[in-house]
Structures are given as structure tokens and as C-alpha cells.
Amino acid sequence: MKKKKKKQICIIGLGQFGSELARNLVPDCEVLAIDIEEDLVDAISEDVHRAVCMDATDLARLGSVVTADFDEAVVSMSESIETSVLCTLHLKQLGVPRIRAKALNEDHATILKAIGATEIIFPERETARRVATHIVNPNLLDFIPLVESYRAMEHEAPQTFGGQSLRDLHLRKRFGIFIMAVKDPRQNSYVFLPGPEHVVRAGDVLVLIGREDALEEFLDSK
């Protein structure tokens, strides 16, 4: 079977969040790490595929290393709203199809979305929600390494799933993956081992289990 090509990911901003994200992506993705601080670039240079010291708010310089061939970019610059906005705008101009950007506040998030960010990241909020979920449900992890390349993970149901039953979705037949639980984030509640007639609602989070390649195929199909 033909080996699946690794995603090309660009991480801009190598603070604690950006550098940790870059290192965790390396086993599964080709990672380009960028920061204006030379010491941060040097610290990660041996851990990623390529590390570049540059001012990412300079469109010409950014375009010399980032192209539309990249699958995603993550803007993790937190020193100012202006720098992350300019960087996000440049990535959009360069044709990067998916841009995730870290926001400092709601106004910052609104601006980032308006200029082309496809997903907004609030690291502290998301970490707090994750910790709260693990406190309430200590035996349920959002990402669990299993034997023989099997994994369990949480993923928000695509909008197209809304109003469909698990029977209608045919996830086991189409991808070979199973639904362990369905989470309603509005109520922070779970339906464990849902039956085939369970109807998925927009915004539900699916707890999936399957082989890594099957889960990747499902994520790519959205």
C-alpha cells in the first residue's frame, strides 16, 4: 500500500505553545518552525525538519519559505496583536489553505477571522476545559495511545453529520472506526456506547476509536 504523504505544517512563533506544538507534530508531519528570536530557533532546530529565523511580518521573506503547497500554518505569535494579524494576512495572501491562529482576546479573534484565519486558538481556555473534563471524567482521555496502531480520539462532528443517525453515517463500514461515546459540549455530558439510532447534533463531539490510518482517512474526508 502506498505510504501516505505527510502534511506540511508551518509553525510561526516558538514560545512555549508553538515550540511544544512543533515538536509534537514532527512524528507525523513535516514541520517548518519560524521565529524572529534566534535563540528560540536554535533551541528547536534539531527537533524539526527546518527552522528559520526571520520576521514573519515581512511578506517577501515569509514567501521565500512558505508557499501554497503547505497544508496548514499555525500563528502562535503572542507579543502583539499587530504582528499576528500581519502574519495571518500574509499567509492568506500566500495561499496557505488552513490557518490556525492564537488569539489574545475576543477582539483579536474577530480580526483574525475577518482576514482569513480558519480556526482560532485560545490555549489557556482549551487547556482549562480539558482539565475540567478529566477531573469530571478521569477515565476518559481525549487522545489515548493503544496497541497495534489503534487510537482513541475526540473530534467535533462535521456540520454534515447534524441530524443523521449513526446508522446513516456508516462510519464502521466506510472507515472501519467505531463511536465509543458522543459528547454534548453544551451540557458537558456523554452518551456512552450510543446505539445505531442515536442522532448526532451539530456541535457534538465524537469519541472515536480505530487504526491511525483509518482515523486519518476520516479526518481528511470532512
What can you tell me about this protein's structure?
The chain is α/β, with parallel strands linked by helices and 222 residues long. The chain folds into two domains: 115 residues, Rossmann fold (3-Layer(aba) Sandwich); 94 residues, Alpha-Beta Plaits. Strands 3-2-1-4-5-6 form a six-stranded parallel sheet, sandwiched between helices. α5 links the parallel β5 and β6. The longest helix is centred in the middle third of the chain and has 14 residues. The protein is globular. The mean pLDDT is 87.
Based on the model shown, name its key terms.
single chain; 222 residues; alpha/beta; Rossmann fold; Alpha-Beta Plaits; 2 domains; five-stranded antiparallel beta sheet; 9 helices; 35% helix
Q: Main sheet?
A: 6 strands, parallel
Total beta strands? 11
CATH topology of the largest domain: Rossmann fold
**What's the arrangement of strands in the largest beta sheet?**
3-2-1-4-5-6
| Number of separate domains | 2
What coarse outline follows from CA principal-axis ratios?
A: globular
Structural class: alpha/beta
For the termini, the CA-CA separation is 22 Å
Fraction of residues in helix: 25-40%
Mean of pLDDT: 87
Corresponding CATH superfamily of the largest domain: NAD(P)-binding Rossmann-like Domain
Radius of gyration: 19 Å
The CATH architecture term of the largest domain is 3-Layer(aba) Sandwich
